[in-house]
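Curious: why these numbers?
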Amino acid sequence: MDELQAKLQAELDKFKAVEKEYHKAVSQRQVLDGQLHENTGVKQELDLLKDDGEVYKLIGPVLVKQDLTEAKQNVAKRMDYIKGELKRFDDLIASLDSKQEQYKEKLSKLQVQFQQEQVKAAVKA
């Protein structure tokens, strides 16, 4: 019975670790989603500018003039990168979700076994 209890605790610890990793990934994905939204707004603003429009980039405490085409390319690259990271986190979250379900099933089976062992021990006593 102690062996079963130890196995149950080990599986519970694994489940908690996966659950923690899952919540961390969801949180990081939300940050990326916010960044994508912000960059989408920047892209829309840049698209409103005429070709001779002026764009400034904040570097430290200084505003530095930047070429409009270069600014648009930088935002597009940043958005592509963020979209790639979002895809990676979506895959990670799906994988962790699957692992959580597997641990839930294992834990459920082990709990049933543990309860059966407790009943057997109580009957013998």
Summary: The helical segments are 2-48, 68-124. The first strand starts at residue 55 and ends at 59. The radius of gyration is 26 Å. The chain is about 85% helix and 10% strand.
